[in-house]
Automatic annotation (TrEMBL):
Subunit structure, interactors included: Interacts with ESR1 and RXRA. Interacts with PPARG; in a ligand-independent manner.
General function of this protein: Functions as a transactivator of PPARG and ESR1. Functions in adipogenesis through PPARG activation.
Primary location group: nucleus
Domain of life, source organism: Eukaryota
GO biological process per UniProt: fat cell differentiation; peroxisome proliferator activated receptor signaling pathway
Cellular location(s): Nucleus
Source organism: Aptenodytes patagonicus
Keyword Transcription: yes
Name of protein: Constitutive coactivator of peroxisome proliferator-activated receptor gamma
Keywords: Activator, Differentiation, Nucleus, Receptor, Transcription, Transcription regulation
SUPFAM superfamilies registered for this protein in UniProt: PIN domain-like
One Gene Ontology cellular component: nucleus
């Protein structure tokens, strides 16, 4: 997560350490020096996503087709220069980083509250200065890059360590990211994603050597320098007294600099006078108020040592180069075959979160764009918890005496202080004959097993009785309906108008290009529509988890948001539906969508009725939308709104949504 203030410090105080470089030239030099090895850049994807997400709209749930096109252009620019990219994503939150993770999540909650306040006041999206990435953006970025044929790695420990190690071990031409820790690791050059001009492939390289020259340090000093400034291992709160001492003796104090800049210069000055030895490190540990943990500095310095590296601050016999903490012996899952496959799929970005559950029995979910003032819609963490409990049950087959291990959840939602994980009990889904075991779901072959995978997946969402109807649909539409039916069952405040908006979305999205969706203009933005968009997108990640657990009854590509969701289009359909527009307007004048609309809506309503849930009409009226007349509509179209919906169709999942369209007698 970097060293506070270091990146800005380098730009302001050490301009010589910021060199403009042409990546094409860097790659060409590499080819001359290493003709047998193509130039590779390792990308810290987690620090890049906010720079990749450039669509104008970001509050409505995500402009996923636009975003996919942007990622494709990014990859093509490097391919054209003959540069191979390897993308790394954080696969875990390490225990030592948990406190910092919690602090950031609670801060994000405040930022999200301000965003909703702005939307309610101004009826529009805030400016980019309040930007927060759409919910689940890193997750779907990983699958997007994989679908574009890129090598993507999901880490087993903190990503920055694995990125730095990969860059060093594979002689990469550089690391692309935005994290000041890459100034500290002794690895390949560090390139800025923030300063990257994609059309010219020009960016800024931050030079460790020039930073050291400016500070009067050597490369071996940098890990200790980082620890004494405060990082993920050594908290800043322990260092205040030390900084004061350094400031008193520093010859570099400059009143035109801010306090942080003066601290950086003072700490560098102090370290430059300390002999590089283990006894110096021990002396520093004695001097600092480290409490009972006197090895903090030792561990902090060691955290920057890549495989094969040593440090004069730590004797070789005390260097325990970082080993992966996720070992089979301590794992929740004791089946070696299952554990190994889950681990391989995790690293290769093929599954989603299930390795974390099988290895540590722990899972986390970051902030979503949810309105804490809307008490009618529970937090997405709570909406999808029953489904997750079924997924945990599929993964963690009951042990001795039929008891499941509890799963630790760190999920952000309003009212959860995140002081400790919530302990969640797995719950077996309702299936005739019980849930198939994991070995069957993951390793067995044949049509019967395929059916078991699909029915187990549906059982996680209480839809096991709807298998035949869902299998008749195209896979992305079936997944969409599965999620929408679950959502309508779980959230009693969702109305017919909400249902109409979602069904119109999936029908109207088909065939729309990224450019067409980018061109869609919204007169205003509705805060509840924003909230529902985020809830729906988080639901797609729950589908990914269920799919991974059940042995992949769906292709992961069929569960992606660019297949089934667009933020602006949903916002438009939501507003149209709640102001009770005609079906003609809702479906953009496309009469051929009328029957599929009624059929999908019938399917959802029937699934809800079977669970004693009747969906009521609750139009929210014009609300803030003014001056909109209901359009004259073709009498062949009917009104979409009634006080409650009586399904007129039964098992007529026909039309272009069929997997294999059937010849039909009537045209619609």
């Amino acid at each position: 997560m970097g060293i506070k203030g270091l990146q800005g410090f380098v730009a302001r105080v050490c301009p010589d350490a910021c060199k403009t470089v042409d990546l094409r030239e860097v790659a060409e030099k590499h080819r001359i020096d290493h003709p047998d090895f193509p130039p590779v850049i390792v990308v810290d994807a987690m620090s890049c996503v906010r720079y990749w997400y450039t669509p104008e709209s970001w509050v409505c749930g995500g402009q996923w087709r636009e975003y996919l096109a942007i990622l494709e252009d990014f990859v093509k620019a490097f391919m054209a220069a003959g540069i191979k990219l390897v993308f790394y994503f954080d696969g875990v939150v390490e225990e030592k980083k948990r406190d910092e993770w919690i602090k950031r999540r609670l801060q994000n909650n405040k930022e999200i509250a301000r965003i909703f306040q702005f939307i309610k006041t101004h009826k529009k999206q805030p400016g980019r200065e309040m930007f927060i990435v759409p919910s689940a953006l890193p997750t779907f970025t990983r699958f997007a890059l994989k679908s574009l044929g890129q090598k993507t790695v999901c880490t087993l420990q903190e990503a920055d360590f694995e990125v730095a190690a990969y860059g060093l071990q594979h002689n990469c031409i550089g690391i692309l990211g935005q994290d000041s820790d890459y100034l500290i690791y002794n690895t390949c050059p560090y390139f800025s994603i923030e300063k990257l001009s994609l059309d010219r492939l020009v960016t800024v390289m931050y030079s460790r050597e020039d930073l050291c020259r400016a500070l009067g340090l050597s490369l071996t000093h940098l890990p200790l320098f980082a620890c004494l400034l405060g990082n993920d291992v050594v908290p800043e709160s322990l260092l205040e007294g030390f900084w004061r001492k350094c400031l008193v003796t520093s010859p570099h104090k400059n009143n035109s600099y801010n306090r942080r800049t003066n601290i950086l210069l003072a700490v560098a000055n102090y370290i430059s006078k300390v002999p590089c030895s283990y006894s110096s490190l021990k002396h520093l540990e004695e001097m600092l108020p480290l409490g009972s943990d006197k090895t903090l500095l030792h561990r902090g310095v060691e955290s920057y040592l890549l495989p094969g590296q040593q440090s004069p601050w730590i004797p070789p016999n005390l260097t325990s180069c970082q080993t992966l903490s996720l070992q089979q012996q301590t794992a929740v899952c004791q089946d070696k075959e299952i554990f190994q496959l889950a681990k391989e799929q995790h690293i290769q970005s093929e599954n989603y979160t299930i390795f974390n559950i099988l290895s540590k029995g722990e899972i986390e979910c970051s902030n979503s764009l949810e309105d804490e003032c809307d008490t009618e819609i529970p937090g997405q963490a709570l909406i999808y918890r029953p489904a997750r409990q079924h997924i945990y049950s599929v993964l963690l087959e009951s042990g001795k005496g039929g008891a499941y291990p509890l799963v630790k959840e760190w999920f952000v939602y309003f009212g959860n202080p995140l002081q400790q994980p919530e302990l969640i009990q797995p719950v077996q889904p309702s299936m005739p004959g019980g849930t198939p075991n994991l070995k069957t779901l993951w390793f067995a072959k044949g049509p019967d097993v395929e059916k078991q995978r699909y029915s187990t997946f549906l059982a996680c969402f209480h839809l096991q009785d709807r298998m035949e109807e869902l299998q008749a649909l195209e896979a992305p539409v079936a997944a969409f309906c599965c999620l929408l039916a679950y959502l309508m069952m779980q959230v009693s405040s969702l109305s017919l108008e909400d249902l109409n908006a979602f069904v119109a979305l999936i029908l109207c999205l088909k065939g729309k290009s990224a450019a067409q969706l980018a061109g869609l203009q919204l007169a205003q933005v509705d805060s509840r529509g924003v909230h529902l968009g985020a809830v729906f997108v988080r639901g797609l990640t729950t589908l990914l988890m269920a799919n991974s657990a059940c042995g992949f009854p769906f292709r992961m590509d069929d569960l992606m948001p660019w297949e089934v969701f667009d933020g602006k289009l949903f916002q438009e359909k939501y507003q149209q539906s709640h102001r009770r527009c005609s079906l003609e307007e809702l479906l953009e004048g496309n009469e051929s969508l009328y029957t599929p609309f009624q059929n999908l809506k019938s399917f959802i309503c029937e699934a809800c009725t079977a669970k004693k849930r009747t969906i009521q009409s609750r139009p929210r009226g014009n609300g803030f939308i003014t001056g909109t007349q209901q359009r004259e509509f073709n009498p062949r179209f009917q009104q979409t709104h009634r006080s409650s919906f009586v399904p007129p169709y039964h098992n007529q999942m026909r039309g272009f949504l069929w997997r294999n369209p059937q010849p039909q007698g009537k045209k619609y």
